[in-house]
Amino acid sequence: MKRREFITLLVGATIAGPLNARAQQPAMPVIGYLSARSPDDTAHLVAAFRRGLSEHGFYEGQNVAIEYRWALGQYDRLPAMALELVRRPVTVLTTTGGEPSALAAKAATSTIPIVCTIGGDPVKQGLVASYNQPGGNVTGVSLLTNPAEPKRLAVLRELVPQATTIGFLLNPNLSQAQSQVSDVHEAARTLNLQIHILQASTDREIESAFETLAPQGIQALAVAADPFFDTRREKLVALAARHAVPTIYHFREFAMAGRYRCFRRVSPRRRLYRTCSQRR
Fold first, then answer.
1. Domains of the chain (ranges plus CATH)?
2. pLDDT-derived band of residue 25, with 50, 70 and 90 as boundaries?
3. What is the pLDDT of residue 257?
4. Which pLDDT value is given to residue 15?
């Protein structure tokens, strides 16, 4: 064999070796991350998700890939996003942002495992057959934020005892909206409160709801547990401060945002202190 031909064969074998080895390696598993919320209001949750994966030996971009889809509070976008992830395909689907994400994922696949976080009863929502024998491909955790609506109303009553007329802001597009209304009305009768139901599923409707508080004599406000409202946290807190209405929410992030806003309005020095304490 001529020297030139030998070198050509040697180089070809050197290149082909790693390529063949790479082709034989298993594909990196892909996690589908479907959320009804937004990346901005859930940055701390995504960080916790990645931390949990790393504790079990999975590192994004190294031995696992994550495909993110965000509905930004627009629930009608979720079915298409879920189908897109299923066709990707993904190894497992994890859903956040309550029932809207979980229901969209369940409708998209009956074979890919789904791990969800929701706010209500998974049986009532049709995600599982029962607690003892859930069946199907869905598992997860319920934070019970929706069943706690009456309790939050009672806490608001204790915090603002002079308030006899309370507003309840809800999103009619949430699947649990009707049960939220029923639970709140029942709690209001027990607490001897007058309840005004305020509906909002857009930014403009949120603003309009706050504008009706004073004319209707609403002295305090309860915001329903809803992923849409989570994506509008800053807006809700700002409007509550502007209209000077005591407001209760379902997650501590709302209270923390409101606390920071109060510090900022008190004095520049206290604002600086709060900013520094957040960075620690």
1. 24-142 (3.40.50.2300), 149-266 (3.40.50.2300)
2. low
3. 83
4. 42
